[in-house]
Structure formats: C-alpha cells, structure tokens
C-alpha cells in the first residue's frame, strides 16, 4: 500500500459523525474525483451526478464504513464503480447502441493546458509524441498507467480497482513501459513519471 493517506484524520472525524468533516472531505476530493471521472466520460453532468451520489451514499452509510482506509483509493474505487453503473444505465436507455457497456473505459490521453503553457517547443513535441504513443496502447494498459502515474496508486490498489491480480497489474505496466521505451527517446519516457 502507499504511504499513510493524509486524509485519514479527516476520514475518522467524518465517520464519527462530524458534519464539518463531511464538508471538508467533499471539498478535498471533489476536484480529484471530477478529473478522474472526466478521464472515463465526456459527460460532465454525469460525472458531477455520480460525485454527488457517492457523497450521499457516504453520508448515509458512514456509520458502517471502515475506519482505516486509504481515503483517496477508497473514493476512486467507489466512484469508478458508480460511474460505470451510471454509464451502463444510460447506455441501456440509448437505443443506438446495444453493447455500449463494453465501451466504458478510459478516454484518450492528452496533456493539460497547464503543461502546454510551461513547455518550450521541443518539450511540447516530446509530450505530443508521448501522448500519441500512450494512446496507441491497449485501453487497459492506458488506464493502469493513468492510475499508477497520475493518481499515484500502488499495484495492490490498481489491481483492486481493475479487478485483476497484482502480478497481472505489474505485467501490464512492464509491457506498457517496454513498448513506450521502444518508440520514444529517454527524455520523453522520463516525462511519464512527472505525469500530473
């Protein structure tokens, strides 16, 4: 598991019944969840609805929640499950696609506007090339790289979220990095470790 989650004190106050802790928890993690959700769906309203539903559930069931959790991991995992269910439900109502459930997954990778503002032309070209090569990877590898390097989750946490074994998770990352190393120069590969 990763280092001790800085939100653990906040979490303990929340499940003990503090209403101010609930507000602080919401404020602390809403942006993280929103960015995470937008990696999976282009529907901003759907993502916001799922965040609100998640916090309503947390408030309703806080008496039965575990005390010792990695808060960020717990919220990301719960939120991903809720977003997937909402996506499946909305797909069932979409008569254009009968198999839309299979399309749930991480969106194509792109660097943010902030990255574009601070990079010079050569670095921007390297980022564009890195983004292109990451987007050539299978969806599950892209998702694992995102969870590992953007969300800073460890192998056990990623495996739990994606419902795969830890060795499989390690293999996915190893193969993804090996494939990227074969197509990119070292400087571009190093940028993935600063992917925020």
TrEMBL record:
Keyword entries, A-Z = Sigma factor, Transcription, Transcription regulation
Q: Which residues form the RNA polymerase sigma factor 70 region 4 type domain?
A: 134-180
Protein family according to the UniProt entry: Belongs to the sigma-70 factor family. ECF subfamily.
Picking any one GO biological process from the record gives: DNA-templated transcription initiation
Q: The organism sits in which domain of life?
A: Bacteria
**Protein name, entry field:** Sigma-70 family RNA polymerase sigma factor
Q: What single Pfam family name could you report for this chain, choosing any that match?
A: Sigma70_r4_2
Q: Which CDD domains match?
A: Sigma70_r4
């Amino acid at each position: 598991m990763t280092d001790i989650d800085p939100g653990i004190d906040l979490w303990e106050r929340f499940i003990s019944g503090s209403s101010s802790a609930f507000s602080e928890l919401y404020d602390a993690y809403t942006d993280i969840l929103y960015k995470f959700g937008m990696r999976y769906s282009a529907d901003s309203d759907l993502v916001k609805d799922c965040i609100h539903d998640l916090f309503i559930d947390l408030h309703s069931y806080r008496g039965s929640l575990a005390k010792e959790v990695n808060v960020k991991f717990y919220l990301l995992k719960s939120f991903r499950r809720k977003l997937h269910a909402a996506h499946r439900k909305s797909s069932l109502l979409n008569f254009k696609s009968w198999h839309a459930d299979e399309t749930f997954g991480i969106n194509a990778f792109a660097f943010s506007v902030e990255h574009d503002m601070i990079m010079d032309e050569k670095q921007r070209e390297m980022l564009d090339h890195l983004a292109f090569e990451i987007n050539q990877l299978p969806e599950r590898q892209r998702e694992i790289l995102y969870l590992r390097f953007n969300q800073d989750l460890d192998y056990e946490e990623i495996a739990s979220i994606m419902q795969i074994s830890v060795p499989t998770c390690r293999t996915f990352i190893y193969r993804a990095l090996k494939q990227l190393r074969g197509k990119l120069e070292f400087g571009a590969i190093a940028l993935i470790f600063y992917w925020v």
